[in-house]
Amino acid sequence: MVPPAGTPPPNPQQIQQFLSSVLSQRGPSALPYAEDTKWLIRQHLLTLISTFPSLDPKTATFTHNDGRSVNLLQADGTVPMPFQGVTYNIPVIIWLMESYPRHPPCVYVNPTRDMIIKRPHPHVTPSGLVSIPYLQNWIYPSSNLVDLVRELSACFSREPPLYSQRRPSPSPNSNPNHNPNPNPNPSHNQSNPAVMSNYGPSPSPQARPQPARPFPPSPYGGRPQPQPQTEDQTEVFKRNAVNKLVEMAHADITGMRKAREVEVEGLFSTQALLRRREEEIDRGLKELQDEREGLEQQLQIVLMNSDILEAWVRENQSKNIDLKDLNVDNAFECVDVLSKQMLDCTSADLAIEDVVYALDKTLQEGAVPFDTYLRNVRLLSREQFFHRATAAKVRAAQMQAQVASMASRSPHYAT
396: domain range? Predict the structure, then answer.
């Protein structure tokens, strides 16, 4: 069971127990934060409370603009605001949304009944939603709540977001931090319970439980004018210059962030290209390795044949052969009938090629009539065709016989 929003832990020890309890809840009462970020959320809140004790961690129901309600953590209290040598306390509520801390929290100024939000204000909307450069440039995981509150204090110091409807009359025995009206709920929030803004919906009245603590009056006094008529022009110029510098710094940071994002996208594309090339190189290396193995096998075959030929040469060198009486036709002996037939067909084919070449030469020299040349070429081509066809059939028969011989020599295994 999630502890009620109206009973926050009163001391640091109970604050730690409170956060550990609500962040360890399981089931329907569990807070909608990612499990891998709950420890970081707890550290952010503990560091915030130790740095700014005026802020208390609570849980409350946040109603989105679409009517969806969810139980969320919030830091409710005041933010110190130095203004013209006096430190004021600005009431705020910092909602830790479901996607926190990967996305920024939602900050609302929570004026009391006698306070009014300044209109127009560069960082606060009429509904109380705060928008400062730190929220817009939120970077996970370096951004945190302590730096956020410090930036809120600095921005509010340059441009206070609240002013009082009436100036309270101080008494000698009055506390400077005492507020005569203990009810912090603003009347205009009751008439406008939910307003859509740039960073999300404004919480409904039940989603914004208010602490019963007094707040000091606004530095603006009772007049609702944004700036007094007697304000020093030097201070106005200085404040405008600071605001201009902040805007320029924000624009520069935005441009740098976009440039870095483009650069990172380019690096990701280069990384993907390098990975594809790495895969191609790996495939090429594998193909080269396979080709190397094939060449090594062929080299072994060539070396084996070379040994056979060298042995034959050594065996026949001792024989005395009279080269003058050597018959060229008997220099080669065919091992079978098919080899003899292949030798005859190949020799006849090559002989016809020589005859056709000689006829071409004689035709060019004019020694043979053209009709005689055509007739002889036709006859020779027909004969050459038959020889080539016979050689193709013999070659097929030799391949079949070789396959059958290899199959007969291979070992047979019983199944």
Answer: 334-406
Which two tokens mark 251? Answer: 């624009």
pLDDT digits (tens, 9 = 90+) for 296-348: 999 999 999 999 999 888 887 766 555 566 666 666 677 788 888 898 999 99
Determine the residue type at 129. L
Please name the residues in contact with 108: beta carbons below 8 A apart, sequence gap of 6 or more.
92, 93, 95, 127, 128, 129, 130, 202, 203, 208
> What's the whole-model pTM score?
0.41
Q: Is 399 helix (H, G, I), strand (E, B) or coil?
A: helix
Q: Is 251 within 8 Å of 133 (Cβ atoms)?
A: no
Q: 246, 223, 89: which is closest to 160 by C-alpha?
A: 89
DSSP string computed for 33-56: S-GGGHHHHHHHHHHHHHH-TTEE
Cα–Cα distance list, 38 to 12, 31, 32, 34, 415 (Å):
18, 9, 10, 6, 66
CATH label of the domain that carries residue 145: 3.10.110.10
- For residue 374, is it within any domain? yes
Please provide the size of the chain in residues.
415
